[in-house]
Known about the structure:
Blueprint: E1 14-18, E2 26-32, E3 35-44, E4 58-65, H1 77-80, H2 85-99, H3 104-107, E5 111-120, H4 125-147, E6 159-166, E7 172-174, H5 178-183, E8 186-193, E9 198-205, H6 212-238, E10 252-255, H7 260-271, E11 276-279, H8 296-311, E12 315-324, E13 330-331, H9 345-355, E14 365-375, E15 382-392, E16 408-410, E17 415-416, H10 422-428, H11 430-447
Parallel strand pairs: 4-5, 10-11, 10-12
Antiparallel strand pairs: 1-2, 2-3, 3-5, 6-7, 6-8, 8-9, 12-13, 12-14, 14-15, 15-16, 16-17
Helix pairs in contact: 2-4, 4-6, 10-11
The structure holds 2'-deoxyinosine 5'-triphosphate (Y43) and magnesium ion (MG).
The site of magnesium ion has 2 residues, from loops.
Protein name: Multifunctional fusion protein
Subunit structure: Homohexameric ring arranged as a trimer of dimers.
Binding site for substrate: 257-262, 320, 402-405, 425, 430-431
Amino acid sequence: MRHDARQENQLREVTIETEVLKHAEGSVMISFGETKVLCAATVEESVPPFLRGSGKGWVTAEYSMLPRATNTRNRRESSKGKLTGRTMEIQRLIGRALRAVVDLEKLGEQSIIVDCDVIQADGGTRTASITGAFVALAIAINKEIAKGTIKENPIKEHLAAISVGILPSGAAVLDLDYVEDVEAAVDMNLVMTETGEFVEVQGTGEEHTYTRAQLLEMLDLGDLGIRELIRLQKEALAATKLPEYEQVSDKEIVIATNNLGKAKEFEAIFGAKGYTIKTLQDFPEIPEVIETGKTFAENAALKAETIAERLNCLVLADDSGLMVDALNGQPGVYSARFAGPGHNDAANNAKLLHELTDVPSEKRTAKFHCTLALAAPGKDTLFVEGEVLGRILSIPRGDNGFGYDPLFYVEEFDKSMAELSAEEKNKISHRAIAIQNLATVWDKWQEG
Ligand SMILES: O=c1nc[nH]c2c1ncn2[C@H]1C[C@H](O)[C@@H](COP(=O)(O)OP(=O)(O)OP(=O)(O)O)O1
Ligand SMILES: [Mg+2]
């Protein structure tokens, strides 16, 4: 008879709650009775030095226990300045166990770190950590697969861990809690795969030696427990909804802009070449990229690279603006924010007219500038530019276009940019010229 009235082959109540953390790529709160462990998986781009350039990834783990996870407070290891031998041993065990079921080549050159933090300890924290860590790892990997960043599932099979032991009465039991663990004559941790193979067997005759028959009895109990745990892991994974990821196809270009005026122009020009475009409006979950650069190129790169990294695909960004000679090239990079915070086109135009109040027509020369940055993960960003010359009018003219178009006079057409049709603007604008320049270098860049 066990002190908590369990059968000898009965697990404590096991719950696996997934996606309990906002930031981690995969997270799990697992409990075995009163033992509770929080497992968080993190995907990192880098690998340890010995794997650099090998194409292989890495999976590792860290283990820790909160001070009041235990009956009396145990000091944080961070305040002691070093990890105890027990902690080191456990975190190595967790990492080894997880790697046993992951094909590191299929994972590709990136690392997944699973942090296992014991919130409450009541026996079996290392086995709960391994069982939960596997689920957190699987969620992180499933997300990568859904995003398309991992092509083939690197997880070979399920993995779980459980404790077994022999009580002073001589009974072999499954899943010892703290009370049983303290008095146990034999104490064993088993890590096993779904196909019933062993990754690790840690069995110690603490108080008593044990027989071969007892060893086999414990292995059988463990096998039973592991099967049940794997069933629960599968249930938890099946119930975990992955976020929807926008898929980006070959004939699609993502343009890192929130400006609808720009988007229309890109749509028209790229549409004619058989591409469809997506803008940041299609990815409302992505936060705004703050333009901290001092040049068009810096800001264009910032927008393109941030979004390319985030979506893991090719991304084009446009940073553009108006440069007025009488204002020493202002507003330039600051064109969108010329009138101050809450920038809108009307306020920017009003401010421009005000700044040029007494400047005569022949001194109101200006140009529109556009820098395009084309970025893709792991590639050097490509830059092209385009400019168009004009003059700043004293009264806005026309309703087409956007931004400063109503004030930008184009000699060639004797019209303001806003009086040109979209078709006309898209032949001569700074953006159109930059896109033409892009076409000449695009293919070579993609190959390189
Ligand atoms: O063809 C144009 N016709 C008129 N005005 C234009 C044009 N091209 C740029 N501009 C002006 C609008 C904005 O005041 C600034 C761009 O600022 P810029 O940061 O590149 O764009 P934005 O903040 O509007 O959108 P986003 O950064 O999401 O691409 O230059
Ligand atoms: Mg902007």
